[in-house]
Every structure is written in C-alpha cells, then in structure tokens.
Amino acid sequence: MTRPAPAPTELNSNNKPRLNAAFAEWMMGLPAGHVTAVPGISRAHQLKAIGNGVCPQQAVAAYSSLLELGVSS
C-alpha cells in the first residue's frame, strides 16, 4: 500500500460503527479521494462504486498472466 490506512469504521448518526468509505477505497488500492471526493455522491453510492470496481492490482496481475501465456485480444 502506498499510504497509511484510514480508520476502517466511522460512527453513523446513531453513534454506531459503520464501514468507512475511505477505508474501502484504500483497500482497493485507489488514490485518496478517487471516489470519496467526488462531489454530490452519497456514501451509499461511493461504497457501491468501490465495491463494483476492479482492484487495479488484480487487473494488472491477471493481464500480466495472460501476456505470459501468449493470450492476445
């Protein structure tokens, strides 16, 4: 990882812990604010976008493996 991890949880309006979207963003290997700093996106939509994304490191590993096998598009 390239930066310190954000706190994994944050408190909701009822003081109950919930997943911190910035932590999920960090776990995916995305730059800080790549999803969480986009104006007008709710926390729920941030988590959906992060969860539906492809982890860049995994995509690179898969593509590299295919290249080593000689698979081309």
Features:
73 residues, mainly alpha, two-stranded antiparallel sheet, elongated, 2 strands
Structural notes for this entry:
Helix content is 42%, strand content 8%. The mean pLDDT is 92. The chain has helices spanning 21-27, 43-52, 56-69, and strands spanning 9-11, 17-19. With 73 residues, it is mostly helical. It has 3 helices and 2 strands; from the N terminus they run E-E-H-H-H. It has a two-stranded antiparallel ribbon. The chain has one domain (9-69).
List the helices and strands and how they pair.
Layout: E1 9-11, E2 17-19, H1 21-27, H2 43-52, H3 56-69
Antiparallel strand pairs: 1-2
Q: Give me the count of strands.
A: 2
Helix and strand string, N-terminal first? EEHHH
Shape: elongated
Number of domains: 1
User: Pairing-aware structural class of the strands and helices?
Assistant: mainly alpha
β content, as a range? 5-15%
* Estimated radius of gyration: 16 Å
Strand order of the largest sheet: 1-2
The helix count comes to 3
Q: What's the main sheet like?
A: 2 strands, antiparallel
End-to-end distance, in Å?
Answer: 30 Å
Overall mean confidence score, pLDDT: 92
Helix content: 40-55%
| Poorly predicted regions | none
